[in-house]
Design goal:
The protein has twelve helices and no strands. By secondary structure, it is mostly helical. The protein has one domain.
Length: about 260
């Protein structure tokens, strides 16, 4: 534990400057190195999510706590192999299951913390008329939309700032779990400490990635098959550069390599 703490201290202290444009370019480049594999895996991931999602309550929970984190880890692991000039077999996309326990705990912890931060906003904007408005739409499909209730005050949006800050702070949690072997809470703390140094730039980075996903949805919805992997590859590129992931000591590199091949 003390050794892990010292390693993270060094990573945070010596982090590179944030190079937004470079990460986007590297993300597209990594995607192109295994375009077919990324697209097929994304399609498989979407189909699994849709099938599981039809299960009431349990489906959405399973998607957010298991399917999503494991799939993200698969994207990151393959992106690293490609980044190091190595070939990626399709089965390696599913290596995220090797870290499922820690990933689920991390997803659960971040969801609980973010949910608590979301409560003040819900309390400020809660209006039963919105529930009635939604129910009327569901009960009368095809009918003209009922009158929209009064919108919440603009100042209430300020209450979403803690939620946004937490989302940014924990964005590299999965990376620290799969690439540095940290448990879920140390990984969350490492992510928070690193991204606090680059908060504004990562916020802008997140906006750009969000626009990529939105744009990909409008390309006959097929573009999302490319949008998702490009975003994950760009996130990997940012983490790899900030933490100098691929200039680790030789024994660490060989250890990870053995784990990915086994």
């Amino acid at each position: 534990m003390q050794e892990d703490s010292a390693k993270i201290d060094k990573i945070v202290r010596d982090a590179n400057d944030f190079r937004l444009g470079e990460y986007l370019s590297r993300g597209f480049g990594l995607f192109q190195k295994d375009l077919g594999g990324f697209i097929v895996f994304t399609l498989v991931f979407i189909i699994i999510s849709m099938v599981i999602g039809v299960i009431p309550f349990v489906g959405s929970l399973a998607n957010s706590l298991v399917v999503g984190p494991v799939a993200a880890a698969g994207f990151y692991l393959v992106a690293r192999r490609l980044d190091r000039g190595e070939a990626a077999e399709f089965g390696q996309y599913f290596k995220g299951f090797d870290y499922a326990g820690k990933l689920v705990l991390a997803a659960l912890a971040t969801s609980i913390i973010s949910g608590l931060a979301f409560i003040p906003f819900i309390m400020a904007v809660w209006d039963p008329s919105w529930v009635e408005w939604y129910q009327e739409i569901i009960q009368n499909p095809g009918q003209p939309l009922p009158e929209v209730p009064v919108l919440p005050p603009l100042w209430s949006l300020l209450l979403l700032l803690p939620v946004v800050c937490l989302a940014i702070a924990y964005s590299f949690t999965y990376h620290f779990i799969i690439f540095h072997g940290l448990d879920f809470w140390p990984a969350m703390e490492a992510s928070r400490r690193l991204l606090t140094k680059h908060f504004f730039m990562f916020f802008m980075f997140g906006l750009v990635l969000g626009l990529i996903l939105v744009f990909s949805l409008f390309v006959f919805c097929v573009g999302i098959l490319a949008g998702f992997p490009v975003v994950y590859c760009a996130l990997y590129a940012a983490f790899a550069d900030l933490t100098k992931l691929n200039v680790a000591p030789l024994d660490e590199e060989e250890g990870l390599e053995r784990h990915l091949v086994d």
